[in-house]
Design brief:
The structure is a homodimer of 139-residue chains. The first copy, chain A, is α+β, with helices and mostly antiparallel strands and 139 residues long. The first copy, chain A, has a domain of 93 residues: Hotdog Thioesterase (Thiol Ester Dehydrase, Chain A), CATH 3.10.129.10. In chain A, 24% of the residues lie in helices and 32% in strands. The first copy, chain A, is built from four helices and five strands, in the order βααααββββ. The first copy, chain A, has a five-stranded antiparallel sheet with strand order 1-3-4-5-2, covered by helices on one side. The first copy, chain A, is elongated. Chains A and B meet through helix 1, helix 2, helix 4 and strand 2 of A and helix 1, helix 2, helix 4 and strand 2 of B.
Chain lengths: 139, 139
């Protein structure tokens, strides 16, 4: 089941997912990425940081956008050509993060779509803001 | 061992890492991110795509930058405030990718450093181009 082609998308289309990251998730991401920064891995170290506790890797939280784009909107068959990410707040272990992608601009002649990307914490504060550029599947 | 503070960095400072991603790495990233797009997971499906075979998740390759920034340059204690990524070529399973980050601009009064991010394949072709914005550790 292919995702939506450019003609099937409209500005404002939106999907979202809510997800919390566990200590095990953070360890798995550290393993696969090689990012063993103690801010994510070592609670004793993290107590001395400005965040006072371990935080989830920003790129792991950002990967929620990749999941939404590649499986839901536009969905399967999309080609990911760009992503910007601003990390605006730390994400704590176990905190429920709601990530959403919203169609912002459709450039039909180039088969490109630009989507706003937003992840918020349970207080509704943005933790990541960004934009994705996608080539939707052709049909 | 804290990373480098703003006064210890200079334009042109560079670190790099070479890494290949296996089928197991891609499966682990799919699990932790929720990104089960068949372009990464299903060889039969992938044969019908423009890339003709499964490819590595762009955000997994991009996480090499996070690893370099958080553990080497500036290193431990850095705060990641932004990342841009342009995915310019597909990355195949087992392909040795060299990712590097290079100090491009130092904004001392804001304690910010901007680093160029580049990942290349064994043919020397860029697979990701981007920029990271970091607050280096204060000493």
């Amino acid at each position: 089941m292919q995702g939506k082609s450019i003609g099937e998308l409209k500005v404002g289309d939106k999907v979202s997912v809510t997800r919390a990251f566990s200590e095990q998730d953070v360890a798995a991401f550290a393993q696969v990425s090689g990012d063993h920064n103690p801010a994510h891995m070592d609670e004793e170290y993290a107590k001395g940081t400005m965040f006072k506790t371990r935080i989830v890797h920003g790129m792991l939280v950002g990967s929620l956008f990749s999941a939404l784009l590649g499986t839901e909107l536009p969905g399967v068959g999309s080609i990911y050509t760009g992503q910007t990410l601003k990390f605006t707040k730390p994400v704590h272990f176990g905190e429920e993060i709601t990530a959403s992608v919203t169609v912002k601009e459709i450039i039909a002649e180039k088969n490109r779509v630009i989507l706003d990307c937003l992840a918020v914490n349970p207080q509704g504060e943005p933790v990541i803001l960004g934009e994705a550029t996608i080539m939707p599947p052709r049909k």
